[in-house]
């Protein structure tokens, strides 16, 4: 995760002000996981709102300290550094999250894989904007990718790699997990109305704003024009996550290569421009946006849960962004 220069606790705050129905509206933000986390929340008094917002943003910082691949002391970095040498003891929380990631991998036929770190490095997306590698480099990196190379011991709560060079990369899961945990903190602090966003790409609408019972209004941008939208909707106890080829990419030999990697082939997926997923949890919406992006419309139509909504913008001439049936 991109946590460089974000180690200090910094909160950019706007003054609380009265909202509809006499409720106080508060906005707070802080950096974590290489992006900005923001909270827009309503409540009856400023003190509890301030405390709830601070606790939720501190939760994002705590998870940054656990999951960052830029911090050598983080649990994730310690696993990456030592798990081939010996089993690494981890916290129950980290173990449970890693177990969930491998379940996602199995259910997505390997199109989601947290062990994609070696590929992100060879393609230059780790601490960089990307570059085109040689085929031999990609093939070599693929030897160090695959969730089946990670051995979990539930009794000992340890993680071990059976080949050298495995690198866990939480870039496709960390923000969604953090948003869900922040929602839990807000609920525990008595907050019933809030919008939580991680960099604008993973969002959760808790309850409804006091002026609109439909929920929190959000727009989904056009992947080809940031000034246009392809959909607008209302989130009420739901999440929205978007993955698009416009987020991080480079051009080489007349072709666009994005950071959304197919861990089975070792190459960036090409058939889709953007996928947006609406789901009950942000972890689900963030994770599943990648397999849907990689595997395409036909696979998504068969496998998406009934309580998910998926907007797909395919990468072909004349294609429009459409909701998957």
Break the fold down into its secondary structure elements and pairings.
Elements: E1 12-13, E2 17-18, E3 24-32, E4 35-43, H1 46-67, H2 75-82, E5 88-89, H3 92-107, H4 117-122, H5 135-142, E6 150-153, E7 158-161, H6 174-188, E8 194-198, E9 202-206, E10 216-222, E11 225-235, E12 238-244, E13 249-252, E14 255-258, E15 261-262, E16 267-268, E17 272-279, H7 282-303, E18 309-314, E19 321-323
Antiparallel strand pairs: 1-3, 2-3, 3-4, 4-8, 5-7, 6-7, 8-9, 9-12, 10-11, 12-17, 13-14, 15-16, 17-18, 18-19
Helix pairs in contact: 1-6, 6-7
- Give me the count of strands: 19
Mean pLDDT: 92
**H/I helix tally:** 7
**Percentage of helical residues?**
25-40%
Class derived from helix and strand content: alpha+beta
Order of helices and strands: EEEEHHEHHHEEHEEEEEEEEEEHEE
Describe the structure.
The protein is of the alpha+beta class. 30% of the residues lie in helices and 30% in strands. It is built from seven helices and 19 strands. It has helices at residues 46-67, 75-82, 92-107, 117-122, 135-142, 174-188, 282-303; strands spanning 12-13, 17-18, 24-32, 35-43, 88-89, 150-153, 158-161, 194-198, 202-206, 216-222, 225-235, 238-244, 249-252, 255-258, 261-262, 267-268, 272-279, 309-314, 321-323. Strands 1, 2, 3, 4, 8, 9, 12, 17, 18 and 19 form a ten-stranded antiparallel β-sheet that branches. It has a three-stranded antiparallel β-sheet with strand order 5-7-6. Strands 10-11 form a two-stranded antiparallel sheet. Strand 13 (249-252) and strand 14 form a beta hairpin. It is globular.
